Amino acid sequence: MTTKFQIILVALLAWVTIIPNASATGQSGERLFWDGKEYQMLTCPLFDNPDLKQWHKQMEKDWTSTDLWRGYVGHWSIENGMLYLDSIATSKTISPLDIPELRKYCKNGRVAATWFSDTLRVVSGTRVQYEHFGFNRHYEHEDYIAVKNGKVVSVRRMENKLLIKGNQEEKKFKQFCDDLGSQLHQRYPEVNGRILIQVQYCDFDAQQMPTNVNVKYVHNAPTNQQLAHELEEKLSNYILANRVFPLYFINGEYTQEKWTFPINL
Fold this sequence. Notes:
Blueprint: H1 4-18, E1 30-34, E2 37-41, H2 53-61, E3 73-79, E4 82-89, E5 93-94, E6 106-107, E7 110-112, E8 118-130, E9 137-148, E10 151-159, E11 161-164, H3 170-187, E12 194-204, E13 210-219, H4 225-242, E14 247-250, E15 253-255, E16 259-264
Parallel strand pairs: 1-3
Antiparallel strand pairs: 1-2, 2-8, 3-4, 4-5, 4-7, 6-7, 8-9, 9-10, 11-14, 12-13, 12-16, 14-15
């Protein structure tokens, strides 16, 4: 008989399977020349221009790469505190003055981004974290440049780190979980079934390393407290000793996924 939990689980699995086939692709950034260097910019100021809605629709129709759904890469620069659009790369390089909607922003022969009042995210260094979707990635150095009406207001720098790479040997971890389930069932034969567990690192030391693992029961939590204590202790010790899951320090905060897996008793 199918339980409500099984129905939900099947639906979730179907959702996870479908989503990557839609638009889950990491996107190319814009380019920014700033303080004598060229950077990758994970912000698209042209999206904030209300006059370019039709232009964007046309660009999206003409895209040729899955990592560039918007169909173009803008090349920008900051000079004397003003953000300028220098060129736009599509299948060819075009001047922003070739786009009628942008001509009214022309100052001294250049397009000043006076329509833009938001934050530019400018990245450099080694990529620390990556998700295969949009601009969902982080780098060692990230500058957040606050802009109002095209003028730079402030700059805030964040330093990001990969603290734990994560052990990619999934078979080894699965074998540990299977062995742990068998051991616990032998010690507590009255308990059987599948326990669904969610874990995260917690309690970080001065070196930013975790000293404990938070264990949460998602399904079929054990009522035997001694069994639960033994399961949590052995699981935590293994995860910490083998550094099973990745851990990041992003924008001043520890960042990690919630890892969910079964223990079969």
